[in-house]
Each structure stands twice: as C-alpha cells, then as structure tokens.
Amino acid sequence: MTKNSMCLDHVVLWVSDPVAAARFYTEAVGLDPVRVAEFVAEEVPFPSVRVNEETILDLAPRTFAEHMRMLPGAADSAGHPVNHVCLSLPTNAFDALRARLEQHGVPLSEIGHDSYGARGNAPRTFYFRDPDGNVFEARHYDE
C-alpha cells in the first residue's frame, strides 16, 4: 500500500429518476441515502447515497447536465457511460449484497476470481447494473 492521502470523494452518476435511483441504492445495494428528502423538497439539485464515511455517489438527473459548466463540454457528459465503478466490501457484506440484489431481481454476472484491483487480487467479484444502466463491480479481498 502507498501512503497516499488522496481519497475518492464522490462519483456523479447520470440517472433518469434520482428518487428511484436512491431507492435502488438504498434497498438493493444497502447504501445510506443522503439529501433525498431535500431533493424531493426541491432544496438541493440532486440526492446522493453514502458508500462509506469518505465517499458518496451523487445521483444527478440528466436534465441537470445543462448546469455543468465547470469546463467546456462538461454538459455533454450526460449519457457518456463510465465502464464501471467498483465497490470493495468485507466478505460477509459481499455475500449479503449479492443475496440482496438477487432478492430485488437484479441480473448479476457469474462470480469471477482473482481480479486485480487497488489492493491486489480479489478472490471473488461480480457485476450488476443499476436501473439506469450504470455498471458496478462488487469484490472482496482476503481479510
């Protein structure tokens, strides 16, 4: 491991219905909702879900793209997919996530083995899509 102090703060996902997306990530994936009530009350531009104490997923409505003016062409990113986002979990949480996704009828890939990532080879991994087509990988490392 490196001693890099940089952390991943957030990933912005383009979604068609932020409330439905938040419900998916809360119920099927098991993440904690952030600012969903405030979004519904039109007090904030988008809700989020918490991955851990340092990282959230922002659930930005595609209609928000026109407000993305931080760089030339940034608004054009709506609909441009990222290949996938990987969630690393403890072994028991990995198994619980897979079971919860199955209960919600979410199609899952087969279990893969020895996939390389930030912490080396992960013994098991699988992929799933959210309702907007964003692809996620779930993995665990030996503990």
Q: Mind telling me which CATH architecture of the largest domain this is?
A: 2-Layer Sandwich
Task: State the share of residues found in helices, binned by percent.
Answer: 10-25%
Sheet/helix structural class: alpha/beta
The CATH class of the largest domain is Alpha Beta
Number of strands: 9
Distance between the termini: 15 Å
Mean pLDDT: 88
CATH level-3 fold name of the largest domain: Signal recognition particle alu RNA binding heterodimer, srp9/1
What's a concise summary of this model?
It is built from three helices and nine strands; from the N terminus they run βαβαβββαββββ.
Task: Indicate the topology.
Blueprint: E1 10-15, H1 18-29, E2 32-34, H2 36-40, E3 48-52, E4 55-61, E5 85-88, H3 91-103, E6 115-117, E7 120-122, E8 124-129, E9 135-140
Parallel strand pairs: 1-4, 5-9
Antiparallel strand pairs: 2-3, 3-4, 6-7, 8-9
Protein model, in words:
By secondary structure, the protein is α/β, with parallel strands linked by helices. It has 2 domains: 1-80, Signal recognition particle alu RNA binding heterodimer, srp9/1; 81-143, 2,3-Dihydroxybiphenyl 1,2-Dioxygenase, domain 1, CATH 3.10.180. 21% of the residues lie in helices and 30% in strands. The chain is built from 3 helices and 9 strands, in the order E-H-E-H-E-E-E-H-E-E-E-E. It has helices spanning 18-29, 36-40, 91-103, and strands at residues 10-15, 32-34, 48-52, 55-61, 85-88, 115-117, 120-122, 124-129, 135-140. A 4-stranded mixed sheet has the order 1-4-3-2, covered by helices on one side. The chain has a 3-stranded mixed sheet with strand order 5-9-8, covered by helices on one side. The chain has a two-stranded antiparallel sheet with strand order 6-7. A hairpin with a 2-residue loop joins strand 6 and strand 7. The longest helix has 13 residues, at 91-103. It is globular, with a radius of gyration of 16 Å. The protein starts with 9 loop residues before the first strand and ends with a strand. The mean pLDDT is 88.
